[in-house]
Structure formats: structure tokens, C-alpha cells
Amino acid sequence: MKQKLDQKQVQKLVLAPALQQAIRLLQLTNLELQEVINQELEENPILELEEDNSQEAAASTPSGEEIKPEEEIGPTETSPDEFDEIIFAAGFQDYFDEDIPYSGQGDRERVPFENVVSRRPSLWDHLNWQASLTFFEPSELEVAEFIIGNLNDDGYLTINPEEISARLQLPLEKVEAVREKIKMFDPPGCASLTLSEALLAQMDSLNLQDEVARKIISDYLPYLQRADHQELARLLNLSLSELKLHLDLIKNLDPAPGHKYSEDRDIYVVPDIFVVKEDGEWKVYLNEEGLPRLRLNQYYSQLVQAGFREDQETTRFIKDKMKRALWFIRSLDQRNRTIYRVARYIVDRQKNFLEQGLDHIKPMTLMEVARELGLHESTIGRVVANKYMMTPLGLFPLKFFFHKSLSGTYGEEVSSLRIKERIKKLIENEDRNNPLSDDEIVDILSRENIVIARRTVAKYRGQLDIPPSHIRKKKFMMEEVT
Known about the structure:
Layout: H1 17-26, H2 30-43, E1 47-49, H3 70-73, H4 84-90, E2 102-103, H5 123-134, H6 138-149, H7 161-168, H8 172-182, H9 195-206, H10 211-219, H11 221-225, H12 229-236, H13 240-251, E3 273-278, E4 281-287, E5 294-296, H14 298-305, H15 312-349, H16 351-356, H17 366-373, H18 377-384, E6 388-391, E7 394-397, E8 405-407, E9 413-415, H19 416-428, H20 438-447, H21 454-463, H22 469-480
Parallel strand pairs: 2-4, 3-6
Antiparallel strand pairs: 1-5, 3-4, 6-7, 8-9
Helix pairs in contact: 1-15, 4-14, 5-6, 6-8, 7-8, 17-18, 20-21
């Protein structure tokens, strides 16, 4: 075996740094973009905020000195066209194009600091705090912290007590004793292994002595899942009215005791696009609230235009930073243009939806928008990712407008969202004594010139979180029992 050097020529696609930056900016929300802009302002002295240099007369050097023209500095070894792109950048002051309408340019009232809510304690923080007040023996506190650390968001223990005992090298009886105490913490039922155990722990915590309810939880939960109330009443030798009293108690228990402390709470969204109707026409505005307006630093721009050369290192630094600033501003401008074009197409396509509601929404795909706008499908996907549009009908993610279509009797396209809404309304208005089956829904839709398969109806019904007709009928019967 010997070492040698080989040289070969290959062709491959490489994303230029500027293109990578443009792609990255395209999929950012306004809040994320604001962080990127602030970071770029810190790293690149060529960029500055517009309000920091609003008076052009004050655009002088940091020390107040006058920039000399090139002939006073002396001859330069650099060719005249080496800085053509940079000199062009000096005139590229703002990335906000006048052709793109923006919203939020005026000063808005700041949110009072008192309205900023601090972080709520998590489930694990809340339980650990109670454990520190309950367990004073170090080994018990160690077990408690280990158990609490292995709870999921719903409060269930994700590891067997036997494994905890083996890992901590402590008796299983001690682990179980600590776990039983944690189950009585607030919220009760945490550290349970099963749904039955969690519900029974809550009954113990509330001192509920309903033995029938305990028996249902212990032995007959599958019947509740199937809503088979008649069979459950027969097994317990109860009437439906008596069974209903016990079921009402069980319904007040929480199957996910830790959920109220989970991080899944309301998320406030800042819309990226505003759609309003003005003078009978739908207008699209990009939301620039909170986004800094950028410009190139006048000192460095004049420095480049004057042909300033002190040393090669300074020259390379200014050149690199100027190019980076130029590409960043161009990428921001291209991002805004692309988002506006996509939003404008969506509004033009969905005018009937904006004016008349969900029954008039039209199907639309990424491929269709990409073809109409002359862009790649992946570009459209990045535009709609995590972007929101504020309309007179409410706030919608851009992904809401992209969905599949089904064919009508005469070949016309029908939106899947429209079909889901129709299925939902049919079930809401159905006869409670005779709920609509999936086949009956198919027949009704076919009479409305919508061609759809039964399995598609079942899929859409599942996505709407609506149970099958036989389960709905059993629930209706139980609700009518007095």
C-alpha cells in the first residue's frame, strides 16, 4: 500500500452563502426576523438603523474629519471596477420597496411592563416544591425527585417502579410508598401508571366513597370507551338512570391530571400579513411592526466612493462587510416581495371565501401557486411556513388555504375544507334518535353533486373528532336518561 495524490474534476450543485441566507430568511416569522436583523446590526458596522442617521447633513466621519477624494490620497493598485458592486451598494439605502404596501409604520402604544406575565411553574416545579416539604429523609427525597423527573406532560409515570428500585438500589417497598404519597399531591393522580390508577387516586384525594364508580373504573373502563352503557348497566345490575349518576361523578375526574400545568397554553401570534377591503377592493399589507428599517452607513459609503485605501487589510474588511450588508438588504427585499406575491395570489384566489365564508373556499396547492408565480414549490412551502394572515374573518395560518380538492358530479373542484364543514353541519343537525351513518352522509353529499367515498367521509369525520354513528346514538340515549 502506498500514498499518492489524485486530481479529478467533478460537477456538483453548491448553494452560495447569499442564497443560503435568502432561503433562511424566507421561512422566518416577523419575530424571528427581528432577532436576525438585530444580530446582523451587531456584527456588521456597515448596517445601521435609519433613525440613527436621519439627518444626512450629519453624515460625516466618526471623528468629524472630511473624507479626501481619491487623487489626494494617492494612486491605488486596485482596478477601477473592483468596487463597482460595492459602490452600487452605497446607493441602496432602504430595502423597503415602494411597490410593496406595509402596515404598522406608525408609532403604536407600547405594552405596559406590568402586563408582562412571569413564567408559570411547571408540573415538575410544582411537584418538586411539594416533595421538598414532605420528604425529609435524603433517600426518600431522591426517590421522589427521580419519580417526578420521569413524569410525562399528563402526569403519568413513564418508568416502572421496579426499574426505579434497581437504578437507585433501594427497596421496592420504599419506592412504592413514596409514589403513593406523590399521587396525593396537587394535582392528585400524578405518578400513576394507568388511567384507572389515576382516577382512583383522585377519588381517594377527594374522599369519594362511591363503590360502584370505583368498580366501573377498576373493571369496566373499556365499556365506557365504547359507550356501551346498556351492557354496563346489565353487568352492574343497575338501571340506566342509576348508572348515569355514577358516570356523572366519573366525568368530573381528570384523565390527564398534569395537563393543567403543561406548557400547552395560549400562544399569541403576530400576523405577518393584513388583508382589508378598501373602496370595494381587497388590499394586502405586509406587517413591518417591530422590524427595524436599515440603511448603509454613510461614512463607509463615502469612504468607498472616494476610493479610500490605507492598507490591504482595511480594504478587505470594508469590502467584505459592504458585500455582506448588500446581500442582507437584498435578501430582506426579496423575502418581502415573495411573501407579498404569494399573499396577493391567495387573496385573489379566495375572494369568495373572504366575502361569503368557508362554504365558498377554493382548493389550492403549493404546486399550483408555484406554477402561477414562476417559483419553485419548495419556495412556496417556505413562505407559508409559520406565517399568519389577518382577515376580516379572523386570523388564519397561510397553510389553511392549501388543501386538496374533490371532484363534483360535473367535474368541478370542491375544497376538502368545505366538505368537512358540510359533514360537521350534517352531524350537528342530525336526528339524535337515528344518527347519520357514513353511507348516509355519502348519499346526501352525492345529491349535492359531491362525489366522495365512504372511507373518505370516515377519515374526515375522524379528523373532526366525531365518533361513529353507533357511539353517538348510545351517548344521545344516555344523555336523555333522567
